[in-house]
Write a structure and sequence with these properties.
Length: 69
């Protein structure tokens, strides 16, 4: 089925130039399999320290909020 066949009957007809503009402004489509399983790359020591500090800071923040609540 082409996009024209699935178009709503009351929708305005798109001219070829409107179709190309619409294609330019749309975000690219990514398959779910390609979007999953992201990888965190911590190559330098500084990046590892910042990442682990953020995790520890989040846990400490949660503990402090639970104590104060």
């Amino acid at each position: 089925m082409t996009p024209d066949e699935t178009r709503h009957p009351d929708a305005p007809e798109l001219t070829p130039s409107a179709r190309s503009r619409k294609a330019e402004t749309e975000a690219p489509t990514v398959a779910a399999e390609d979007a999953r399983q992201g990888e965190i790359i911590l190559r330098t020591r500084r990046r590892r320290i910042v990442f682990i500090s953020g995790l520890v800071g989040f846990v400490v923040l949660v503990l402090v909020m639970r104590i104060l609540a």
